[in-house]
Specification:
By secondary structure, the protein is mainly beta. The chain has 2 domains: 119 residues, Immunoglobulin-like; 97 residues, Immunoglobulins (Immunoglobulin-like). The chain is built from no helices and 19 strands. It has a 5-stranded mixed β-sheet, with no helix packed on it. The chain is globular. It starts with a strand and ends with a strand.
Length: 226
C-alpha cells in the first residue's frame, strides 16, 4: 500500500484480506517488520526500526488478529503516523501469518503473506541513482547493478542493448520487466537474458535506465565473445 503523509500527520487506509480455502476458516496474526531488498533480489525482514528507511514503528494495524471464514474476506485498517522532521520515503512490511492449526493437505503448516507499506512525505522526494556495474555474462546474459542514492524507493526500467563493431544493434531486451524495487542507500543487481548466444566477435553493451528522475542513466562497456 502506498500512502502520502506529511511530516507530523497521520493517514489511514483499508486493506482487504481474503481466505480462498473452500472449506475451512483461517486465523491470522498481524504484525509489522522492516524490509530489506538484498542485491541478489532476495528479501530479509529484520525487526522494526532496524533500517534507516523503516516506518514499521509508525504503522498501526487494527485488528491484530483475524478469523476469516472459508471463501470470505475481512478488512483491516492501517494507519501511518509520520514524525516531525521526516523526509523522503519510509518502508515496512505488514505480515498476515496463520497459526499452527492451519492445515494444507492434512499437514499442519504456518505460512505468511506480506503487504509492503510505502509512506512518502510529499514534496521531499529526492531521486538519485548511480550505475555501479554493467557487464556481459556468458553465454547469453548481462548484469546491471544500480545504487539508489536517493531517499525513496525506485523501480528502474529501461533497455539493455548490444551493438556490433559497425554500430548495428543486434540485441535489445527490457531491464527489470518485473518492476522490482531498490530501497534507499542500497544496491541491486539485475540480470537479463540476451535471447540467444552471440557469434564470436567484439561488441558494445549499453544500458539505458529510467529511475524516475528527469534524465536517464546511460552506461556502456565493450566485451568480446571468444
Amino acid at each position: 500500500m502506498q500512502v502520502s503523509v506529511a511530516a507530523g500527520k497521520r493517514r489511514g487506509q483499508m486493506l482487504t484480506v481474503r481466505n480462498e480455502k473452500p472449506d475451512a476458516s483461517m486465523h491470522l496474526t498481524v504484525y509489522v517488520q522492516d524490509v530489506v531488498f538484498l542485491p541478489d533480489g532476495t528479501h530479509e525482514f529484520p525487526p522494526p526500526a532496524s533500517t534507516e528507511w523503516s516506518c514499521a514503528n509508525w504503522v498501526e494495524v487494527v485488528p491484530k488478529e483475524l478469523e476469516i471464514p472459508a471463501k470470505s474476506s475481512k478488512d483491516v485498517r492501517v494507519s501511518v503516523t509520520v514524525p516531525e522532521g521526516v523526509t523522503g520515503g519510509h518502508y515496512a512490511m505488514i505480515f498476515f501469518e496463520t497459526g499452527p492449526s492451519y492445515t494444507e493437505q492434512g499437514i499442519g503448516v504456518n505460512f505468511r503473506v506480506g503487504a509492503l507499506v510505502e509512506a512518502v512525505v510529499p514534496g521531499t522526494e529526492r531521486y538519485d541513482a548511480k550505475l555501479k556495474a554493467i557487464a556481459f555474462k556468458p553465454p547469453s546474459g548481462a548484469v546491471v547493478a544500480l545504487f539508489n542514492d536517493g531517499n525513496l524507493l525506485i523501480r528502474p526500467a529501461g533497455l539493455v542493448k548490444v551493438f556490433d563493431p559497425l554500430g548495428k544493434k543486434v540485441r535489445q531486451v527490457q531491464l527489470n520487466p518485473n518492476n522490482l524495487g531498490i530501497l534507499p542507500k542500497t544496491l541491486r543487481t539485475f540480470s537479463v537474458q540476451l535471447e540467444e548466444p552471440l557469434p564470436k566477435g567484439n561488441y558494445q553493451l549499453k544500458a539505458e535506465v529510467d529511475y524516475g528522475a528527469r534524465t536517464l542513466i546511460v552506461g556502456e562497456r565493450s566485451f568480446e565473445v571468444p
